[in-house]
Structure formats: C-alpha cells, structure tokens
Amino acid sequence: MRQVGRHSGTNASLVTAVVVAGVVLVAGGGTLAMGSILKDDPGSATAGPTTSASVSTTASPTSASTPSSTTSASPSPSAPDPAAAVAEAKAACVAQVSAAEGIAAAAKNSATHWKAHTDAYLEKKAGQYTLAQTKAQYAASKAFGLADEKAMAATTKTFMATGAACSNAAKTAPKDAAITACATRLKALGAVRTTGTRVQDEWSAHLRMMDKKAHTDEGAYFTMWVRAVNYAQKSVPAYAAAAATVAKAPACA
Q1: CB contact at 8 A, 232 and 116
Q2: pTM for the model
Q3: Given CB 3.0 to 4.6 Å as the disulfide criterion, which of 17, 93, 199, 219 pairs with 166?
Q4: What is the pLDDT of residues 86-102, one digit of tens each?
C-alpha cells in the first residue's frame, strides 16, 4: 500500500509537469503549435489585431474646415449725427425748464396763501380787520394748505428727475442760442425754487401747528405764531423778487 501511494504521487507529479510544460510552450514560444491549430480557421488568415496605428488619420474635408465664401461682412456703424445730438440735448433742456416752471407755479400759490394767512394777523393788529374778518381769512387760506404741500412736492420730484439736462446741453452746443436762453431762464427759476421752497417750509410748519393747536399751551402757541409771521416778512418778499427776475428772463422753447 505504501508503494502504491508513492507511485501515485510520482505519476501525479509527472502529469502536472507535462501540463505545465505545455502551458509554457504555448505562452512563451508555442505560437507555432497554436498557429497549426488555427490554420483551419477561415477568419485567422485575414483577421489581425487592430491598433490605433492601423486607423487612417486622413480626414476628409468638410464644410466646417473650409471658410464659407458667402459670409458677408458686418456693416460698419454709421457716424453720429451732430445735428441730431444737439436737437436731443435741446429737447431735454426744454423739458427741464418746463419742470422748473411747474415748481414756480406751485410756489406762487403757496406764497399767496401763506402771505394771506400772515397778513390777516397783521391787518387785525393794525386795526384794519375785525376779528371776524381775520378769522375768515385764516380759514380761507388754510383751506389751500394741503393742496399747496402736495403741489410743491410733486413738481419738485418731477424737476429732480430731469438731472442736469440744460448743463449737458450747454456742453453739447455751447454756441446754440436757444440752449443758452433756456439755461439763463433755468438759472432764474432756480432762485424761485429756492425761495419758494423756503416759503412752503414755513407754511407747512404752521399747518402742523394748527393741527396740534388744541393740545398746545395758548401762550406757547401765540409765541410761535408771531415768530412765524415775522419769518414770512422776509421769505415772501425774497420769493417775490426771484419771481420778478424770472419774468425778465428769456423764453425757452
């Protein structure tokens, strides 16, 4: 039994060695044997390994690689028209002056009503008005107070939106007579806007005073009222002088 076992091991070793030798022959130098085996394969005669080197690198010409001869050149931009630029600048300046005229119209109403309100007190103090007349004029002028505030606010907002239109127009066409006239008028209207706004500020402050009169000490109220009347004796004439200057300024159209 021991001999049988030993021979069995020897035989197994022999078989293993033969198999390994066959594998080595095929893997290392056994291409001849594998070639013999594949000779009868119809595809083996023409088929071969495909590599990147065997792929043709010659590309056929396409439309993408050839510039199109039908592409038209972009038209060059036209040169700016100086006359059109001046016309546009002038229109913007005229619009700005128009907006300033709106403030002047609103300021005129505010100054008229504020003057009437303060004059009622002065007339009563001078003995020219009765108490009934004074109260009637107070009420009549006060009725316009809210409308005056809204008009000044709205026209000022419109004017501010025009920016520096006339200033820009003067730079665009410094020798244009129409633009120069508009710029001159705008300067005069600027003084009306400044003085008119001061008048409106005083008028608005007194309107708030009257709203709180019932909750204000009578003596304190009277002191503030007299102070407001005195302020009006300066602000209203200043506005009137500015408005007179506008009347002498050149027209803008």
Answers
A1: no
A2: 0.68
A3: 93
A4: 999 999 999 999 999 99
